[in-house]
Specification:
The complex is a heterodimer of chains A (about 110) and B (about 110). Chain A is mainly beta and about 110 residues long. Chain A contains no helices and eleven strands. In chain A, the strands form two sheets. In chain A, strands 2, 4, 5, 6, 9, 10 and 11 form a seven-stranded mixed β-sheet that branches. In chain A, strands 1-3-8-7 form a four-stranded antiparallel β-sheet, with no helix packed on it. Chain B starts with a strand and ends with a strand. Chain B has strands spanning about 5, 10-15, 20-25, 35-40, 45-50, 55-60, 60-65, 70-75, 85-90, 100, 105-110. The chains are: A mainly beta (about 110), B mainly beta (about 110).
């Protein structure tokens, strides 16, 4: 069974540019989560989808971040415009309904904003 | 603010010994606790989950939970060099249906 995949693995952009990260969850997992780890800090929750609906977006830092999951399959996280403090590793995770806390993580996208 | 606290380490343990990793949490409402292992540059990998007070064993790993003391631990028996990694403790947030919060991780090094 394929795990959670993320694309790209690494992105370097300039301040003010736009970047879109993609996550493909494990097949059959309705729950999809985005997390972020900035340098030296713990992994922080950003938001949670159940299928195509946003269940909890309390961790989104501001309105420069937009997450979508059209069709309830893959998800995108767009940062527009990017700021220096957005640099970090963005992880996606997925889980099955009923075992929502047992989340399986993707390899992450390392975002560097210069 | 709800938190999960871990000693950042590094914790150095000789090969074959028992490695003991500890974690405390602040939210008394939390019910679910997790240990993730993260190798350098890789994604966190779920290795143990525990929901009830007491011990839960899985192979060389034992998770221990004490809700009264708000304390979670992970024991790794017969430590191997391949166990060298950062171990992340995580818990649910009682007010949320699915959000989990992470500690900053403990770096474990197994010396041959």
């Amino acid at each position: 069974e394929a795990g959670v995949t993320q694309f790209p693995s690494h992105s370097v952009i300039e301040k003010g540019q736009t970047v879109t990260l993609r996550c493909d969850p494990i097949s059959g997992h309705d729950n999809l989560y985005w997390y972020r780890r900035v340098m030296g800090k713990e992994i922080k929750f950003l938001l949670h989808f159940v299928k195509e609906s946003k269940q909890d977006e309390s961790g989104m830092p501001n309105n420069r971040f937009l997450a979508e999951r059209t069709g309830g399959t893959y998800s995108t996280l767009k940062v527009q415009p990017a700021e220096l403090e957005d640099s970090g590793v963005y992880f996606c995770a997925s889980s099955q309904v009923g075992t929502s806390y047992e989340q399986y993580f993707g390899p992450g996208t390392r975002l560097t904003v210069t | 603010q709800k938190e999960v606290e871990q000693n950042s380490g590094p914790l150095s343990v000789p090969e074959g010994a028992i490695a003991s990793l500890n974690c405390t949490y602040s939210d008394r409402v939390s019910q679910s606790f997790f240990w993730y292992r993260q190798y350098s540059g890789k994604s966190p990998e779920l290795i143990m989950s525990i929901y009830s007070n007491g011990d839960k064993e899985d192979g060389r790993f034992t998770a221990q939970l004490n809700k009264a003391s708000q304390y979670v631990s992970l024991l790794i028996r017969d430590s191997q060099p391949s166990d060298s990694a950062t171990y992340l403790c995580a818990s649910d947030v009682g007010s949320s249906a699915s959000k989990i919060i992470f500690g900053s991780g403990t770096r474990l090094s197994i010396r041959p």
